[in-house]
Structures are given as structure tokens and as C-alpha cells.
Amino acid sequence: MIRVELPQHLRNLAKVGVEVHLEVPGPVTVGAVLDALEDRYPMLRGTIRDQTTHKRRPFLRFFACEQDLSHEPPDKPLPEAVVSGREPLIILGAIAGG
Hints:
Elements: E1 2-5, H1 8-14, E2 19-22, H2 30-40, E3 60-64, E4 67-68, H3 80-83, E5 89-93
Parallel strand pairs: 1-5
Antiparallel strand pairs: 1-2, 3-4, 3-5
């Protein structure tokens, strides 16, 4: 079971708590987790990544095991601690401004 923490605006949209649990078949990658998340919560399609290109939306970042995975390839396997459910994949809304 993969644990995913969502930022407040996506929690509100999906009507879920801080963390969701997902079954992810096959290799556990950021792309596979996002596929499973969008399948289970279709209202999130297009909010985390572009629906056509599947590129990460600006102002969203991916973290796991204290590592920024935002610029990693979406098919790179996630750390074992995430795969085993000990650690969550965190989707974080970035803050910008000046």
C-alpha cells in the first residue's frame, strides 16, 4: 500500500484527508502512483500534471524520504521505504511570490 500526502487544495478537491492509500501495480514510480491517484480520484486529473504531456504542473513538487523527486524521470522507481509503505510520497504545493 502506497501512502500519498496531498496539499490542502487537492485534499479539498478530492474530499480526502491528509493522506490517501493506493494500490499501485507493477513498478512503483511517481508516474504509476499518479496514474493510480487519478484513477481513484478522477477530479484530480490535470491538477498535478498536464493531461496531455504528463509533465508536472508548476508549483507542485514531489518528495520522498527527504529527497526532492520533482525533476526525476516519472518512471524512476521510488525508494523502498515508499514502496513498503513506511514513508509517504509527498505532493507539496510550492509557494512563490515576492
